[in-house]
Design brief:
Elements: E1 2-6, E2 12-17, E3 37-41
Antiparallel strand pairs: 1-2, 1-3
């Protein structure tokens, strides 16, 4: 699985890729206030519980400076 974070103008401001059989992507980045689009591509493999084409997207604001 690969993921891209795009800003309002469509420029990629962060990207990541999964590794291994499950292909989970874990990334951290610093973004300025604004609107962003997240594109996810690829296929996840695994058990029936976590398996093909089941995705969970979590976005957290870690610092409010």
């Amino acid at each position: 699985i690969t993921l891209e974070v795009l800003d309002e103008s469509g420029s990629v401001v962060a990207e990541g890729a999964g590794q291994g059989f499950d292909g989970d992507v874990d990334m951290e980045t610093v973004l300025q206030p604004g609107r962003y689009t997240i594109n996810v591509q690829g296929q996840k493999f695994g058990s029936a519980h976590t398996g093909p084409n089941n995705y969970e997207l979590r976005v957290e604001q870690l610092d409010r400076r």
